[in-house]
Amino acid sequence: MVFELFLALRYLRAKRKQMMISVITLISTLGVTIGVCALVIVLAVMSGFANDLREKILGANSHGVIFRRDGRPMESYEVVKKSVEAHADIVAAAPFIYQQGILRHGKRVSGVVVKGINPALSRRVVTVTEKMRSGSFDELMNPPALPGDESEETAPLPGIVIGEELAASLGLISGENVFLISPFGTQTPMGMVPKSREYRVCGIFYTGMYDYDSSWAYLSISEAQDFFSLDDRVSGIEIRMQDPFKADRVTTAISQKLGQEYYLRDWMSMNQSFFEALKLEKIVMFIILLFIVTVAAFGIVSSLMMMVMEKNKDIGILKAMGATSKSILLIFMAEGLIIGIMGTFFGALLGLSVSWVADKYQLIKLSGDVYYITHLPFQINSLDVFLICTLSIFISFLATIYPSMQASRLRPVEAIRYE
User: Fold this and answer.
1) Exposed, middle or buried by CB within 10 Å (0-12, 13-18, 19+), for 336?
2) DSSP letters of 338-367?
3) Which residues of 140-156 are buried (b: 16+ CB within 10 A; e: fewer)?
4) Are 34 and 27 spatial neighbours (Cβ–Cβ below 8 Å)?
5) Can you give the pLDDT at residue 144?
6) Which residue of 29, 69, 261, 375 is surrounded by the most CB atoms within 10 Å?
7) Per-residue DSSP letters for 182-229?
8) CB contact at 8 A, 201 and 175
9) Mean per-residue pLDDT, 405-410
10) 262: three-class secondary structure by DSSP
11) Phi, psi dihedrals of residue 11, rounded to the nearest 5°
């Protein structure tokens, strides 16, 4: 094999009688390079996009939620909470209230999802409590008194934490007051009257996902129970698992333990269609871009075919000197593989470099209200890179078979008859 590899490298370095062969060889190498580079970058983008969304979803939401099967508020939630926390795969559990409301500040209004939490318990379940632009979730339980509150007859206003985009749309900053309106209201002799209460913005959070930052607001769980007239009941219990990627197995075990009265939904089932769509899109894009490498492989075929024609006399002399058909076959296969390997190497190197730089410096900005994220993330997956390089080299190998076989079948007498 050393002899065949030596000749393959010698042929590649040699000056061509026909410039066209050198040009086609260069184009073939560049084609493989561009194809591999495009594949690496696109798959890095799609992996980064899916991973970034997964982290944001898991940051703003728990790994699973437990509700009553009949849809009513949960009364004996402490018993359920202790039962769930006893499971070996559960890290923490926290009760929550989930309702809808309307925020009004001046003439601006916005519909919101109101979530009542106990910050001390929820901090162990979700990470949104740590992503603050200003203020703190702890102030929900003990809102600070501002200058002028001491002179008021009433206690300081209860606190509310809202998303950054929601604060911007309502023109709010920490310390300002806002009215929360319940769409359900209260029944009076005059009919249904919307229930409204004033709150003080004690914190502004930022998750990086526009849907959450523009439509979520948090109250303390006791305040939410009072405002929505839930007494000592809650909407459900959210849980955090040791391994969120085993959520389906843990969900099944806990559901069996709690019985038919409750049902549990994990984050994977709630977002299954979304991540399946991303996975399918990644596969389709991989197949489409693989055709770029396939087109470049036709360039390898053309290059080798023209080289066989140019080296017709050399092949005849080598065979006359004792070279076997297998050796001739291996020479041209090695030559085509060298082109493919070089193109694959430089393509992978270029793709990895572009992905790393673009991710590190966040070069590609996005509109958060359209794509849920503010910049295009890149995540390099070693398995994806290995698969791309393997398939690229394999396609290059397939491209060498026909011209190499044609060269190996050449008869010495015909090759040197007119020399």
Assistant:
1) buried
2) HHHHHHHHHHHHHHHHHHHHHHHTT-SB--
3) bbebeeeeeeeeeeeee
4) no
5) 65
6) 29
7) EEEEEEETTEEEEEEEEEEEEEEE--S-HHHHTTEEEEEHHHHHHHTT
8) yes
9) 86
10) strand
11) -65, -40
